[in-house]
Amino acid sequence: MEYCLYNKFQITNHKYQTMTKIQIFKLFRSLIIGIWDLFVIWCLYFEI
Asked: What single string gives the DSSP state of each residue in 1-48?
C-alpha cells in the first residue's frame, strides 16, 4: 500500500517537473523571439 502511494507520488512529481520544464522552455523561447524581433525592428529602423 505504501509502495503504491509512493509510486503514484513519484509519477505525479515527474509529470509536474516535465510540465514545468516545458513551461520554462516556452517562456524562454518567447523571450528570445521577442528580443530578436526588437533587434530586427531596431536594425531596420536605423538602416532607413
From this structure: -HHHHHHHHHHHHHHHHHHHHHHHHHHHHHHHHHHHHHHHHHHHHHH-
